[in-house]
Specification:
By secondary structure, this protein is α/β, with parallel strands linked by helices. The chain contains eleven helices and eight strands.
Length: 278
């Protein structure tokens, strides 16, 4: 019964938004926006606590929310890890162990509304602002981002143009317009609701759907970049990384098979290490 309810829940929510929009279009658009930005998972699980608690570092204040940071100290260059949607810093555990063997100085933080960090919503511009706070504190040489963390890594560089040496993107989506097409299909939202939602996005974040393109933002990046994406990624299409790679002239694209969206195995870790070591 629970599984059946969860299956139909998006349609029920969509029906409610479609109906509310007839009477209160602005309120319906606001609800659709905050629903889109609200993760359902990503908090720290009991089995993740030991690894994370042993590396807890400073907590910094970001828009009146506490953001948890982590550090695994080393003597080599500073690397900052930026996790994805409905995840937390624990996703980097195996990669961190490899970086420790190379004696890198490793930093990470839980995004707003994820892990041990406070907050209820997340979007790329918000995440990029939090990332900039972290960059200001530690001045990393290399940033590695996964999924929405990879989107944020590019958008952050587009916005702030920091003096980072290298960037690594794992499974990045690219076009907000495609993401919103999927959102519309999942909830079965009417075109009129999507129009109001796009207006609300523009009001809140300063971009219309088609304007928010990671591939376009990557065009101005001058640092060397490594992009890794799985051919059969079911979350973010491989076309996203191909478009980013095409616009980002100083980037290299590695396409895997069978690594999924998580892109979390020895071969991928070794490719990243080869890139940052050279």
């Amino acid at each position: 019964m629970k599984k059946k309810f969860q299956k139909y829940l998006p349609k029920i929510i969509g029906m409610q938004l479609n109906s509310q929009h007839l009477i209160q279009p602005q309120k319906a658009a606001s609800k659709a926006f905050y629903l889109f930005c609200s993760p359902r998972r990503g908090r720290v699980k009991p089995e993740q606590e030991d690894f994370l608690n042993n590396a807890k570092a400073e907590v910094f204040n970001f828009q009146n929310k506490k953001i948890q940071t982590y550090r695994w100290p080393g003597s080599k260059k500073r690397i900052l890890l930026v996790h994805g949607w409905e995840s937390n810093t624990h996703r980097w555990e195996e990669f961190i162990k490899k970086l420790q063997k190379e004696d890198y100085d490793i930093f990470a933080f839980d995004a707003p509304a994820h892990g041990y960090s406070e907050g209820k919503i997340i979007n790329v511009p918000l995440y990029a602002s939090a990332l900039q706070e972290m960059v200001n504190q530690i001045t990393p040489s290399i940033i590695v981002g996964h999924s929405i963390g990879a989107m944020t890594t590019v958008f952050h560089q587009h916005q702030y143009n920091n003096n980072v040496e290298k960037l690594v993107l794992l499974g990045p989506p690219s076009e907000l317009s495609s993401i919103m097409d999927d959102y519309q299909k999942i909830l079965k939202l009417k075109p009129r609701v999507m129009k109001s939602l796009e207006d609300y996005f523009h009001q809140q974040l300063g971009y219309r759907f088609k304007e928010f393109s990671i591939a376009k933002f990557a065009k101005a990046i001058r640092q060397p970049g490594l992009i890794i994406h799985d051919e059969y990624d079911k979350i973010a299409p491989i076309s996203a990384s191909k478009a980013i790679n095409n616009e980002w002239k100083n980037s290299k694209l590695i396409i895997t098979e069978g690594a999924g969206h998580s892109l979390n195995n020895d071969s991928i870790h070794n490719n990243i290490l080869n890139f940052i070591n050279n």
